[in-house]
Design brief:
By secondary structure, the protein is mainly beta. It has 1 helix and 18 strands.
Length: 241
């Protein structure tokens, strides 16, 4: 919880916005749209939706627009202000791909974002308004892996307690919950070779850390069988809008 709104800001690319003396004047969080694949049925008034052919609904990216008040409070002159916005532009524009973007509100989640468009600067005498737009992955990602036992951060409205590590002796039925809205490809860590049977398909798991091609946790309840002997663990982070 933010006790002092004057300290509110974002963390990105190794720095917090307050390190540059930036105040957040406004913030617009865009929401992702559904990517619909609609086709009209000939000689009919019906439209068929192909967007869930591969198991789940896909979404567009989301924009996040932030307007900062920018000023160099140590000097209060125009050249100092220019030096300050030079530092801010370098900080925000340096990454060439999406990296974690943390909002001080609900900062247990992060966005994956990148500044792709040029920022705008509305200059006044010794200060100005600096607008930047982050192009972001559709979902917010929880910082902690599912199955963690850190109760201080547990949200009884959004989180679910579940077991993600299992001992397998011959075979075992396993249930995992994906409470987000996207397919999640878990990292599967096993102490020996095993087999996962899920929705009529079999997936081979090798000893060690595996990214199993085609094996996704669908939104909701996922029930499957693991065959083998040893310990298996499923590592994944929930993703919410």
């Amino acid at each position: 919880m933010i006790k002092n709104l004057n300290d509110y800001g974002i963390s990105f690319n190794g720095h917090h916005s307050k390190e540059f003396g930036l105040d957040v004047l406004s913030k617009k969080i865009g929401f992702p749209s559904k990517n619909k694949a609609l086709r009209e049925i000939p000689h009919s008034n019906e439209v068929y939706d192909f967007s869930e052919v591969y198991g789940t609904q896909n979404y567009t990216e989301r924009p996040i627009e932030i307007v900062f008040h920018i000023i160099d409070r140590s000097n209060w002159d125009k050249e100092s202000m220019y030096i300050m916005w030079t530092k801010v532009v370098a900080w925000l524009m340096e990454p060439s791909h999406k990296i974690p973007l943390y909002d001080d509100i609900m900062k247990e989640y992060y966005y994956l974002g990148e500044v792709q468009e040029k920022p705008d600067f509305d200059e006044m005498r010794f200060n100005g308004k600096f607008k930047v737009i982050f192009q972001c992955y559709p979902f917010r990602i929880h910082e902690l892996q599912e199955g963690n036992d850190i109760w201080d951060t547990f949200n009884f409205e959004l989180d679910i307690a579940q077991i993600v590590k299992h001992d397998i002796k011959g075979s075992k039925q396993i249930t995992l919950y994906n409470i987000g809205m996207s397919n999640l490809p878990p990292v599967v860590v096993a102490t020996s070779e095993m087999e996962i049977q899920f929705k009529g398909k079999s997936y081979k798991v090798l000893s060690g850390e595996n990214k199993v091609t085609g094996f996704y946790l669908l939104p909701g309840i996922n029930e499957f069988k693991v065959i083998g002997n040893g310990t298996i663990e499923f590592e994944f982070h929930k993703e919410v809008i």
